[in-house]
Amino acid sequence: MFIAIILIQTTIPGIGNIPIGPLSITIIPITIIVASILLGSKNGAILGGVWGIITFIRAFWWPTSPLAVFVLINPIISVLPRILVGLVSGLFYHKLVKYKINNKLLMSLSGIIGSLINTILVLFLIYIFYKNDSFNIYHINTNELLPYLLGIAGTNGLIEAVLSGIFVPLIAVPLQKIKK
Mean pLDDT over residues 51-76, rounded? Predict the structure, then answer.
C-alpha cells in the first residue's frame, strides 16, 4: 500500500511536491516516516529506497526540475538520503517509544527528524559533489553555492519539517489504532 502511495506521490504533479510560489514543498517524507512508525525502521528504509530509486530513474526519464538532471542522477544523492529518512526516523521512534514518552510528541519529533535528514543530506551531498560545477549547473559562483543551499534549507527545509511534525502524528495515530 505504501509503495502505491509513493508511486502516486512521485508521478502525479502536485501530490508529492506542492508548489507554493517559488518553493516546492516535498511531502513524500511524511509517507516514509509514517510507514517507519507503523512497520518498523527496516520497512521504512525499504520504502525510502523505493522513493530514492524512483527519484533516480525520474532524473533520466522525467526530471522534476532542470537541476534534477544534473544532481539526482547520482544515486548517493537521490537514493541514500531517502533510505536514511525511513531508517533513522523509525529507529528514533521505536527506540524511544518504550520509555513511555507521549506517543504524539514522539511521532512529531520523528517526523521533524526524518524530514530534516532528507533536506540536510540532499543539500550537503549536492554541495560536496557539485560545488566545483556550481557555475555550470546553477549559474552561480562557487562562493555563492553554500548560501544558496542554506537558503533552500531555511525555506523549504523548515517548512517541510514543520509540516512533517504536524501531519505524521495526525496520520499515524489513527492508522496505529487500526493496526492494533
Answer: 87
Sequence-separated (6 or more) residues with CB below 8 Å from residue 68: 55, 58, 59
34 with 81: CB under 8 angstroms?
Answer: no
**Residue, of 152 and 138, whose pLDDT is higher:** 152
Nine-digit cell string for 22: 517559488
How many folded domains does the chain comprise?
Answer: 1
Mean pLDDT score of the chain, rounded to an integer?
A: 90
We report the CATH number of the domain holding residue 87 as 1.10.1760.20
pLDDT at 49: 98
**Measured distance CA(109)–CA(140) in Å, rounded:** 35
Looking at per-residue pLDDT, the higher value among 30 and 153 belongs to: 30
Which residue range forms the structural domain that includes residue 22? Answer: 2-174
Q: Would the pTM of this model clear 0.70, i.e. be above it?
A: yes
List C-alpha distances in Å: 42 to 31, 32, 69, 83.
15, 11, 29, 9
Give the C-alpha separation, 123 to 128, whole Å.
Answer: 9
Cβ proximity of 76 and 124 under 8 Å: no
Sign of CA dihedral 131, 133, 138, 141: positive
